[in-house]
Amino acid sequence: MSEQMGGDRLRDSFARQSLMTTLGAQMLSHSPGRCQLAAPILPGMRQQHGAGHAGVTFALGDTAAGYAALSMMPEGREVMTAEMKINLMSPALGERLLATGEVVRAGRRLVVVRAEVAAERAGERVTVAILQGTMIPVDLP
Amino acid sequence: MSEQMGGDRLRDSFARQSLMTTLGAQMLSHSPGRCQLAAPILPGMRQQHGAGHAGVTFALGDTAAGYAALSMMPEGREVMTAEMKINLMSPALGERLLATGEVVRAGRRLVVVRAEVAAERAGERVTVAILQGTMIPVDLP
Amino acid sequence: MSEQMGGDRLRDSFARQSLMTTLGAQMLSHSPGRCQLAAPILPGMRQQHGAGHAGVTFALGDTAAGYAALSMMPEGREVMTAEMKINLMSPALGERLLATGEVVRAGRRLVVVRAEVAAERAGERVTVAILQGTMIPVDLP
Amino acid sequence: MSEQMGGDRLRDSFARQSLMTTLGAQMLSHSPGRCQLAAPILPGMRQQHGAGHAGVTFALGDTAAGYAALSMMPEGREVMTAEMKINLMSPALGERLLATGEVVRAGRRLVVVRAEVAAERAGERVTVAILQGTMIPVDLP
Questions:
Q1: What letters, b where the CB count within 10 A reaches 16 and e where it falls short, cover B34-52?
Q2: Among the partner residues D87, D127, D132, nearest to A134 by beta-carbon distance
Q3: What's the mean pLDDT when you consider all of chain A?
Q4: Which domains does chain B show, CATH number per domain?
Q5: Nearest chain B Cα distance for residue A13, angstroms
Q6: pTM
Q7: Chains touching C by CB (3 or more pairs below 8 Å)
Q8: ipTM of the complex
């Protein structure tokens, strides 16, 4: 879906996710089968040693994957996460997190997705986590 | 670890997780190999249709599992999530979420954990998600 | 489905899985939402140190979970594995493996399942692995 | 590790996995952080409708990922699968399966891996499954 055409249902949906607002997350870009988000690591979003909480990393990766999947859906359909698996590889330290979701296989009944979350720190990018999971298409309520 | 003895390093650590404070989460109870958390589904923690965001469900389940694992660690050790898998079964709707973590196997190098997250709604409890994953013991910094 | 009534479509389907025959696997029992299999750890099914291969442990756990799911399906429907996650906790050593599958949630579109695989060794039972995943109902071809 | 130098501990280890022999699997190639296997879909390795069993797809993907991880280990060390997640996307139909494993992050304590399994059918290649998981380094016994 072009970001220029006919409004932008991905951005409209994203704007309605209050957790994304609370996280200060933005949708940087999307294209068919792909979506990228960014969010600062806010003071209120940390684990016991001050790194970003795994739940925040998960939320961003899962959401990027979800919008990557939504980008492949026809009008009137959206997606829900059926299941998601995350491997955490580095602490979420730095100025912001970048989450990139992609569709591996868009089936009629299941959409298999992947995501990667990276931390930007002093101009360097470190992979924090990778995710693999399944989105399920549903009719818009 | 008894909750009555020698302070409570689980609750101390939990209190330092700013995300848990932001979520309004409380540690209801813990015992060796088990931990239960609760949190309201706050207005700022939702997905596009007003249910609790999968990232919040994950954060609570992962954290309950992590403290279940920590309850089995000797002094001076803590745990980090290496990987976690969540199956989402129902929307997170209701007054609050209850997350129960348990240790399946506490090895020297890896701790295998499970968690369940339920939503309380009008006096009923609905299972929202189940999680299965791995915590890795680390020395306290 | 009762094992006594009207033939036994679980056992009929199981008998058509040539891998189960090759593994020497048997269906010990099934009841609604539950299925138990057993198989010896054959000489040709091992990893490099002589323990049962993780692929065999997975195959048994996945199959037990699949038949647990099938036990909840109406006539004319069956299930396929959409995704499955395994945590391996002990080497598969001993006389035989026991795999127990159970349904956590049987939805119309997705069936969430769990399984446990144990090894029997000198009269003791050791948990080798736990699995969590998703079966998808499909029409019989 | 070069395949030309000092024997080939990956191939030596692979040759000791009796399951790989039973499956008719071959190691096609390996390089640091990468390994590719192939196996026919043998008559004795099928599910109830004649496609390759998910357990076989898993076994090949897991093993390819394991040898990708082993390729990064120093002498005297090997790896074991701690956990692995598979998303199955298409039935395993065709002449043979190709499994490609790769290392995403080789840590001192954990090695995060991915694999893809494809089926070759009439000259075309279809992705059957993707895997994501964790290998744990251990000392050789």
A1: bbbbbbbbbeebbbbeebb
A2: D87
A3: 94
A4: 9-139 (3.10.129.10)
A5: 6
A6: 0.95
A7: A, B, D
A8: 0.95
